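Q: Could you fold this chain for me?
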Amino acid sequence: MDRIRSNANVNRLLHVLVPFLIMIALEKGVYFEAIRFFPDAGDTVDLVSFLLGAAAAVLFFRLYDGGEVAESDDGAEPVGPIKTEPVVFCALRLVIALAALAGWMYAVNLLADGAGFSEELRAGGWAFGALRIFSLILLHPVAEEWIFRRMFYGELRLMNPIFGVLAQAVMFAIAHRSTETMIYALGAGLILGILRERTGRLWCVIAAHSLTNLRSLLCLTLLTEKSQRLAADAVLLTLALLACAALIVVRVRSRRTAKASEPAREEGTTS
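A: Sure. Below is the predicted structure, expressed as structure tokens.
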């Protein structure tokens, strides 16, 4: 049984790593080669290379034969499926995740002394084309969450959910180019992976990714003053604290209700 489980884990790793490596090699190769010939078409080249890499990852993931799958003695997977939470709980966790992502981005910018990717974009002001906005707000969040938090994490968590969260976060970081964005993507991957595991709903993770990119876009265009960004983040932090309090209250009440119903069940069984 242990040998079968070990073989299954190796197959799961290969099932994820092969499409991932193909995606990275194709995306980066096409980007750096194409940008030499079309230096003024950065957004288009970036989007095309990303789409090619993402399509290759999905294709190879679906074509790969997983081989032996380890099962427990009763025939079930060693790790159960992700449990879905009610929409209200998902919304509360979404707000908390947004605050965590904003805080992590702020910390990364401080560590980088405000240099790199963020300042480069901020210097461009309103120089955001429709293609970049569409890519940031919709295309990248949907495609990346489908690949990393649905496909890759869905396979890796069957080995161990904690390992799955860590592994997909590292892979998500490697998929980015600059050092600053890799560091940010590592923390963001952890937050989004935990959100995926806790809520069980992909739309919630996509929303967190998309809204975080929207926040960055607003900070680089409309909220150009530091005081404006701090005020917006203060509102977000307040909402996150309220969401935490609401989750705690709901959990405490549900536990009390469960404990109160236990004597009634025992009386019903005795009678």
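A (continued): The chain has two domains: 1-69, 84-127+138-257.
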